[in-house]
Amino acid sequence: MNEQDILKDAERHCTKTGARLTPLRRRVLELVVRADAPVKAYDLLSQIDRSNTSAKPPTVYRALDFLINAGLVHRVEALNAFVACPQAGHGHAAVLYICEVCTKVTEVQGARPGQEHKPEGFCVTRSVIEHYGQCMNCR
Ligand SMILES: [Zn+2]
Ligand SMILES: [Zn+2]
Q1: How far does the centroid of ligand 2 lie from the alpha carbon of residue 90, in Å?
Q2: 98 CA to middle of ligand 2, Å?
Q3: Is residue 89 included in any domain, yes or no?
Q4: Which domain holds residue 104?
Q5: What pLDDT, on a 0 to 100 scale, did the predictor assign at position 64?
Q6: Which of 61, 106, 135, 137 to pair with 98, CA 20 to 30 A apart?
């Protein structure tokens, strides 16, 4: 999927769920979508600073939180960085394959993980599974 399709998909998803994609949230999403590797929060900040001086760090972090909760962006926990989801709000586990050489991240959508072992009464709201290794180009 190309950038425009991902952004259009994200907009559709927000309209459907009633989530508000404000200009700043959209801009942050755009930057994450355009990056070809997981992007760090401070990289987003420096790119947004240039175009919008009123975007303070907390606003950008809140925008990221919104995008994660809306299922438009996934956080790569081990890298403390962010990738755009190619299928907005798929509502099940994101399985990320992360190349340790070029940091390229490929997402596949997995089955619901941990459902069979989860503690009684526990409600899973999001799951991200990270696999590390080398991609085809780096092997
Ligand atoms: Zn995803
Ligand atoms: Zn690689």
Answers
A1: 25
A2: 8
A3: no
A4: 94-133
A5: 94
A6: 61
If you measure from the C-alpha of residue 135 to the centroid of ligand 2, how many angstroms do you get, rounded to a whole number? 4
In 3D space, the residue among 118, 115, 48, 89 whose CA is nearest the CA of residue 39 turns out to be 48
Q: What mean pLDDT do residues 80-85 have?
A: 93
Q: Which residues line ion ligand 1, judged by CB < 5 Å?
A: 85, 94
Number of separate domains in the chain: 2
Which ligand is closest in space to the CA of residue 137?
Answer: 2
21 lies in the same domain as 64: yes
What token pair was written down for 20? 């508000």
Question: Is 37 part of any domain?
Answer: yes
Q: Is 80 exceeded by the pLDDT of residue 90?
A: no
Average pLDDT, the chain: 87
**Is the confidence at residue 23, as pLDDT, over 60?**
yes
Q: Is the domain of 101 the same as that of 60? A: no
Q: For 24, left (φ over 0), alpha (ψ -120 to 50), or beta?
A: alpha
Ligand 1 midpoint to CA 94 (Å): 5
Residue 114 phi, psi dihedral angles, 5° rounding: 70, 0
> How far apart, in whole angstroms, are the C-alpha atoms of residue 97 and residue 99?
7
Say yes or no: 127 and 67 in one domain: no
- Shared domain for 13 and 71, answered yes or no, is yes
